Each structure stands twice: as structure tokens, then as C-alpha cells.
User: What shape does this take?
Amino acid sequence: MSLVDRFNTAIMHTYGGPGLGIVSGDGAVLTDEDGRTYVDFVGGIAVNALGHAHPAIVEAVSRQIRTLGHVSNLYAHPTAVELAEKLLALTGRQGAVYFSNSGAEANEAAFKMSRRTGRTGVVATVGAFHGRTMGALALTGQPAKSDPFRPLPGDVTHVPYGDVAALEAAVDGDTAMVILEPIQGEMGVVVPPAGYLAAAREITTRHGALLVVDEIQTGIGRLGHWFACQAEGVLPDVITLAKALGGGLPIGATIAFGGAAELIGPGGHGSTFGGNPISCAAALAVLDTIEAEGLLEHTKVMGERLREGLPGEVRGAGLLLGVLGDGAAGTAKALQDKGFLVNPVQPDVVRLAPPLNITAEQVDALIQAWPS
Assistant: This one.
């Protein structure tokens, strides 16, 4: 029986049937159970920032598990403290970090912070994806994902993404927070008009509401900047992170600045594995390697190389790109047959989110293989 057949027999079908059984990875190359290799332009959906089995992550995780594997949140350990200090340094701001295991949990923490403002109103956007737990699902603006599970935590208003006037009309003195993605990855790499985040900052500041920027897919260098909001000079009250932060190990982070960092006190929130030393060690290795290997600039260069070489309309930034065209699933299948993995995220959009250290040769090979 194949690995895929065993998966379909033994594992709950929350994601549908998998297309391949993957058994190993090395850099940007994955190997399936039959020994076929594929260049990975999915990147674990923007998770594998350094590809697979990167020596820095392997060394950091191996060293950490030999030293200290888990101590609970009753005690401090150096890797979590160092990671929090590093993340704050990258933002260039004073604040505090809450660690969890995933992007959904990072957004759940932000959601709970907003309730501690004494207000309950939340504004999110149509098409947003903020996770699938009940709180995060209430923020997610995709009815197909949320409707089967109603009622959800209430007082969430969804406005059209990128529409400043709609945002202006929805935010008032009862609004606790506005949560936005710099780019909507799950909706097909949708880019808002220039100045959208800055307008959201101005509106939320004027009404005393928190601005939460969900950088779970766009952060940690994915767009060629540590955080997408930095590229626009926007200072949110909260940044949420996950995916690329751990480079393949589960970790989420909610970074709060100013008064937002004081909203949740002891007993207000928690996560058993949040800030686990092994995941924190992996995250430090990811951040240090991105710096040491100049991957922010490399990401911009490789993103432009893809944008210029691929046919038709390409939207997005850095190495989070959406290639528009009918029959995305067929395009993905044709590329898989040629040894490339891509993500048909919408019927008419193929999403690319390869490792940040993807090579020029691998990029050129995908361009050559793309169906005309």
C-alpha cells in the first residue's frame, strides 16, 4: 500500500487527499516515496524559509534537544528570551512577545488582547485568512470555511480588502482592533492598493483601536523585508508571526508594542508548548541564517527574476507570488509531472512561496518548464 493510501486510511480527512507521499527533503528538493524528485516552490506554504534539512537548523535543534528540551512556562530559558529579544530588535521597537505554536494561536492571542481594551468590536476583511480555530475563524473572511461552524465569537465585521473608505466607515469608538494581512495569500496573493496599511494606521489611531498586522505569511523575509509593514513605514500595535519563523518547526509569535504589550497579564492566556526551547532554537537559526546569507536581498532578486520570466500577470512581492491564468490545477499538475511543486491556491491563481534560498538555476528551470 502506498504512503498516500495509508494516509487516507489512518489520518482524518481534514485537508482532503494528499497528492504525493514525500519521504525526504534537501534544500529546495523533495523526494517522494517512489524516488522521484521535485523542486519545491510551495515551501510548506511559506514555512520552509531555508528549505529542507538546512544544516543551521539541524545543528541548532540537535544542540538544543541535547541541552534542554522543555521546561514549561513556569521557568525561563535562554533560547526563548534570546528569540524574543531578537524579534524586538528586528522591529526596532520596545515591546513584548508571546510565543505559541501556530499562526492561528498567534491571532487568538491578539483577539484576546483586543477584548482587554474594554471594547468588543473587531474589523477584519473579506477574503482574509487568520486561522481555523474558533476565534481565528471568526476573523477569517471566507464563509466557506466559517459558515459550517457558526456561531463564532461575535462582533466581527468584515469589510472589502483594500477599500479605505469601507474601513473608515466600519471603525468607530467601539472598535477594539482592526486586523489586516499586508497581502492576502490564501485568496490568491491579493495585493492591496499602495498606502492601505498606512491608512489603516491613521484610522485606528484616530479612533483609539488596535492595529494588528497578520504577518504569518508575509513576515520573516518572505517579501524581502523582515516584516511587510516595515516596507511601508507602518507601526502596528501588534504583529503576528508563525510559518517561516520556525523554518519547519512549530512556533507562533504575537509581538505587542506600547500599551498593547500590557493588555494580558498572568493567567490571561497561555500555551503549554509555546516558547518551547527546540522551536525557539530553530527560529534563532532561521533569523541568523537569513542575516548571514543576505537572504532578504536574494528574495527580492529571485522574486523579480520569476516575475519577469513567467508568462502572464504575476502579482505579489518578494517570494510570495501569484501567477494568474485559467486552470491553475492543470498548471500545477503539468509542472508536477516535470518535477516542480507549486500551489493552485485559487482556480485561476498558482501561488509560489519557495524557500528564500532558492537558486537562480532552480528559478530559471521553473520558468522554462511553465506551460505556455
Q: What stands out?
A: DSSP finds 14 helices and 15 strands in the chain. The chain has a mean pLDDT of 97. The first helix runs from residue 3 to 10.
